């Protein structure tokens, strides 16, 4: 039986903008959701790891969370999906999918 995890994709290309994708499920479900292109760059984190990093993000400004991918993913969850972040901190699990895209230019 596969364990549910959190998948995180951060994709940037000049002229294409910035895309963040956060999704829960098994690794296979997440790769299917992302498709062949975005699944190449996906990183997986356990819910325990995400919970620990969400607690760190409460003490930091999101701008300072850029060095560690797990912390950055947690800070994006904390900033953009506060209800999901609260559920993960409280229950240790939440089923969700999130995609954010914006063009910087």
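^ structure tokens above, recovered residues below v
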């Amino acid at each position: 039986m596969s364990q549910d995890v959190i998948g995180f994709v951060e994709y940037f290309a000049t002229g294409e903008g910035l895309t963040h994708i956060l999704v829960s499920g098994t690794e296979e479900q997440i790769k299917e959701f992302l498709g062949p292109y975005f699944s190449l760059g996906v990183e997986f984190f356990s819910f325990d790891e995400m919970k620990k990093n969400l607690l760190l993000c409460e003490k930091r400004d999101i701008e300072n969370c850029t060095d560690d991918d797990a912390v950055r993913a947690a800070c994006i969850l904390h900033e953009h999906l506060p209800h999901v972040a609260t559920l993960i901190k409280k229950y240790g699990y939440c089923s969700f999918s999130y995609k954010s895209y914006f063009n910087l230019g």
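The chain has a mean pLDDT of 89.
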